[in-house]
Amino acid sequence: MSTHDSWVEAAALDELPDDDVKGVQVQGLDLALYRVQGEVFATDDMCTHAQARLCEGFLEGHEIECPLHQGRFDIRSGKAMCAPLTEDLRVYPVKIEAGRVFIALD
Asked: Which residue has the higher pLDDT, 5 or 79?
């Protein structure tokens, strides 16, 4: 069972195309939702290197490429994969219930 008590609805699952990314706003936070091989992941939407929205980037497998400087993050861990990125990306726990995507913000 999940220990998170602040699950917030972020989107409908059918709003997320497979192997794509979508920007959403949840309680004032800009987040990016990714759907890869049926699994959903969530990260902050803003690149840690420059003011670029990752939802406008290029998703390949489990990596999102920033549209500005081509830095890549692993969407599962938030790990910065290459230069010019030096700071990891915040990731959020995700659960799917009744066709809705929920994110834990705590």
From this structure: 79
